[in-house]
UniProtKB/TrEMBL annotation:
It comes from Priestia aryabhattai (Bacillus aryabhattai). One of its GO terms (cellular component) is plasma membrane. Its main location: membrane. GO terms for biological process: regulation of DNA-templated transcription. GO terms for molecular function: ATP binding; phosphorelay sensor kinase activity. CDD domains: HAMP, HATPase, HisKA, REC_OmpR. This is histidine kinase. Residues 824-939 form the Response regulatory domain. Residues 592-807 form the Histidine kinase domain. It comes from the Bacteria. Residues 149-176, 257-291 form a coiled coil. It catalyses: ATP + protein L-histidine = ADP + protein N-phospho-L-histidine. It holds the Pfam family Response_reg. Residues 212-265 form the HAMP domain.
Amino acid sequence: MNNKLKRKSISTQFILLASILLLAFAAGSTVLVVRQKEITADYAQYRAQVREKAQLLSTIDKSMNKAFLQARGFIAFDSEDMYNEAASQQKIIEENLDRLSGLAADRRERTLVNEATVMLNTYFNQTLPYFKDIYDKKGIEGVRSSPERKAASKSIEQMQKELDDYQNELTKDLNTQYDDTSSDMQKSQTFFILFLAFTVVILLLLTRVLLNKFVKPLSQLAYTASEIAAGKEMPMTFDEHRRDEIGMLSQAFYKMVSTLQNNEQELTAQNEELIAQQDELHSQQDELQHALELTKEREGELELRNLFVHGLTNSLHKQEVLTSAVTNMSRVMKADHGFIMLADEKTHASFGLSSSSVQQMVANLHNNYVDHVQKTKKCMVVKRECIENERLYHQQTFYLYDVIVPVLSSQGDMLAYMFYSRYADEYTDHELQTFEILAKQITIALEKIYIYEESEHDRLLSQDILNSIQEGMQLVDTSGTILQVNTKISELFQYEHQSGLLQLSRDQWLDALSQKVENIQQLRQYVEAICKGEQVEKSFVYYLYTEGKRKVIKVYSEYVYRNRQMFGVLFVHRDITKEFEVDQMKSEFVSTVSHELRTPLASVLGFTELMLNKTLKEERQKKYLTTIYQEAQRLTSLINDFLDVQRMEAGKQTYDKKYQDILPLIKQVIEVQKIQTSKHEFDMISDQEHFTVMGDKDKLLQLFNNVISNAVKYSPDGGNVTVKVYQKEHAVYIDIQDEGIGIPSEALGQLFTKFYRVDNSDMRKIGGTGLGLAIVKEIVKAHGGDITVQSEWKKGTTFTVVLPLLYEVQYDEEMISTNDNRKSVVIVEDDKSLATLLQVELKESGFHVRYFNNGEDALNSIHQQKPEVVVLDIMLGENKLDGWDVLRQLKENTETEKIPILISSALDERSKGLELGVCEFLIKPYQPSKLSKTILQLLLKKQEHEGEIMIPSDKEE
């Protein structure tokens, strides 16, 4: 019984210890597994709540931004749809706030949700309708000037900041929770490892006890058994307490061995189970690592989006914005290639494409896919098989996914097209929505650029307009600091660039100007008074500019207002040097004219009074009357000069130009001058007998009379007056040379200016109005010529008149051809010499010419036999009908209204002629060949219009 109890006791102990060890190991493993699952579940639940809150906050933020942007768009673009779109966001925000309120975990979150709800209700129910009402009544300026605008913007910005802070705190809490979860997992794993180590130690200790308690006796027993099996007798030494049990073990040796093997297998199985549990722990760790990688990937996507938005807002240059947009969009959407082009097809950018691919893209931009996107205004995805050069080294079928994304303006118009391609992976619906969202960001950036370009264009246009003004413009603020200038004022200050004057204070620019101005103190006082808003005696001030050429500058000012408040002063610096000089000349002219008029009037009145009050002899009466007549002639000449100047300035001076030989005219003037002077000798030298020009006889006489009389007048001591007439090339030159007092060199440039007289005592003694040479200049100019002067002080002066020379043609009626096969031309001209010249030219050009010197005969002939062209002079001498009458009668008759009419006149009334239906207008003098060419062109145009092209017969040699 004792042996049985002994054996049972050993088995029980062994089993009890093994059971306790296994139970402890199983309990520890179970606790570890359960704990890790609880940690993982808690973290997953918390992360889900945080992600849901973050999603709600993101939706609220997007809806708020959309509402604010649409509200601002309504004010900027006056779009009622944008206002309604902004108001519609209220419902979305309230729904998300309600969901967020249900997820609020603490008092702070509930308070934030309540504050957001109150603020948004105030914005949508009060602020937004309030600003809409202001905008409807006062427009955008009313909104800008509203005192509530800043408060509303500040409250909106504060709420957005609180929401952003809350979202950042959620992210921070999630990161903290993740760190805590990782820490707990590591602690749990550490505990398991320690527990496993403790179990191994216990197992080792137990093994040692077993070795000491059982193995040694068993070894002895085995040795004894072996020895016994070998036939040897071994003394048996057993513990008295274990004798029966060792004997039992000896008898059950092989059974014990089997039992040990089974125990070993069981331990191996348990070990494998532990390894499996460890693998499960590693799997859970991998899941956590994957979640961390997803979080990092999401962070990278957000960073790419931030780069995308930053690239759009960081520049106002279209090319830079497009390049940034296509590059960052390709990175965000993981596209391999990208291309964007504006709708105007001028600006584009690409990503991952070669230059040849870009050119191919531009050339084939318009296709069915693009047309479809343009109509639907939605993204379109095209799946296609890669072509050979896109497969690289791949042999199998390989697909490429292309997406076409429209970029629409706020009005729905197409701003740009985007094309993106990538291999293998198809675009998801979420990615297409992302494309559309990011395309709206590009729309905002492009519209901002367009607004900037328009404002920059307006600014440059305003500056160009200011620069084109020939007066110095200078805008300053109320303190006198320069805000804006134009080119003229920069030249006045001698600044190469306008920017150098900007932001100069009042003292700085006045000091800079003081170095170039004489009476700077008056200007300074005027500027200071105007800037302070004080009343000034005069609305302008003058100053003398001494730098370089002396100028007289007039400065006046205007206050500039913005929103009914003065913010600056516009100073205008006007160069009145010419007006000042003209005023001086006119003042001098008035005194001169007063003297010139009073002198003959005094003679007329004096001699008339003598004749009325005294009885005079017939000889003395005749002498007095002759004096009165001469003074009256002098007055008439002065008055005629005044009238000529007035007509020339008004452009109403007319000239009756005809072929004139100038030699008889010059001789006539010289004969008159010989009668009026006895101190001078006149010589006329000519290298030809005739010099024919096209001119007005009376005006040419006035021309030569003024120049020759000046030669006499400014030779008070007498001397020779020599007139040389000679030809040079195609012009006639007339030199009038005297031996008088001459003209100072500084006065030569202004000699032909009206009212100008040389400022010296010798000249003033001679007198005069200063109009004679001005009239001469106008007459020469009207005749297509020129006049120059050369003079040496105290030695004499030479005036040279140059007139275009013509050659007179002998008139012969038999030269007119009567060949009916030639095109007929009618010439109506009262100048027989000119008519003959034109007849010869037209006859040699192959025309049949009929000539008439009056309108009546011409009309009768034209009605009897219609010509191809009519060459008509406006002034027809003393005839009843002038050229205008002939023209009207021809145009009023249905049979002759389509005959081309060409005006040949010395009067420049082109606009009147064209209104009456004239085809061409030639101003005399002109080369006769020009008339032939003009008639040929008229006939060609007429015949091309009628369907046939004909020309006159060959020109006779």
